[in-house]
Here is the input.
Amino acid sequence: MTKHNSKHLSIYNIENYLSQINKNTPKDTRVKFLMRAARVYYKTGSMKHMRSALNLFEGAYNLVCEMRGTNDPKSYIIAIMMDKCSSNIARLKNLAKERKHSK
Here is the structure.
């Protein structure tokens, strides 16, 4: 089985990566682009990038639901990732509040 090399995609070149999407790009390919970029943002763990990841996950979820419906397994996976991302954002907000109150 081949190994997918994702080392070339980083936070610094995601905008160029997403610029490949145009009006002629099929919806399945758009979902792949959005999910890959969202996962890169998600792995950083910062508040700013988590919000960007959540926006990209929502865009991918809307496309999948439009193509296949809400009961498709792929839409469930994206919904789970959106939930994880939003819970991480809430956790980061709580940590920031605790740091402010402790000082």
